Model the fold of this input.
Amino acid sequence: MNEKRLLDTFLEYVQINSETRNEKEMCERVKKDLEDLGLRVDVDMIGDKFGSNGFNVYGYLDGDPSLEPIILSAHLDTVVPGYAIKPYVKDGRIYSETDTMILASDDKAGVSAIMEAVRTALEQNMKTRPVEIFFSVGEECGLHGAKNADYSKLKGKMAVVFDMGGDIGTTCYTCPGQVNFEFEVFGKPAHAGIEPEAGVSAIMAAAEGVSNMKLLRVDEETTANIGTFKAEGPTNIVSNYVKVIAEARSTDLAKLEKQEKEMIQAMEDACRRHGAELKYTTARSYNPYKLTPEDKICSLLEKCYHTLGCETHYVRSGGGCDSNIHNEHGIQSVGIGIGMCKAHTGQENIAVEQLNKTALLVLELIRA
Done:
């Protein structure tokens, strides 16, 4: 493996502007890089479905057809602010030049490591298993690239998503599903000083509904939170409208469904008691997944970690990633740590050593 080339690739990639929904330049670059390596490349133009100018990129490396294919997955978009990033290396770590700008190791470290491993395998004429590369867009704004992907283009049934904090060996065996809520509570206005009895306070109804919900840490697998509670108006008028935006997450699907029903029920009961009208919508962003060390993708990862002298650390994530969507499509998939630290902040950084180990891990995963 060429460590200098890997570092140069990473430094170059992070300087390509690819904020979520504006990933086109990065998509075109990795498509060309894969084609230059001689891989078969495909795309799906799904950006219009969520307001992006980008597209998913698929690459195919033929390998030993007697072995099971593996999907190598990473995303091409970054959070905001991710424009005109200027990286630098200091004491073996890579940083962004300014603390007002991300580094974009999330997830260009994953993309770069996959690219270097494939280059190395081809240069060394290495015998590999069949490899399918899936580079998604719109991950940071709701896993939209994976949600809208053409899964008929992927034949493999096990995938590794290179998109987590934590050193090599960190393996996310379970990620939660997420439900989003929007509640609208309609009351009845009245003069608060002259005849408040004639009104119905949307604020009181909504506040009681929220207070009767189980929120924050519901149990070890389930969380819920209110993000917005909005009511505006003068103090001399009984409030007639409130909007509440909330979410619930759980790594257990039955618990997620139960939490969803209970939050709705709490708001319905409160509105009924106060005589307010309730309208609400819910949307399942993604379903949870839960694997075990005995599952084939986990077993393969443990074997590769051992070869590299790394210990396996199984962790539970509080957020979703493309693995959630892959598992919904019958692909055993886990997210793994690739060494990124303080992602989504101006202090984001990654160790060069972890970048190198990620590429070596990819080599072990694809080696026949």
Notes: Residues 3-175+288-366 form a domain with the Aminopeptidase fold (CATH 3.40.630.10).
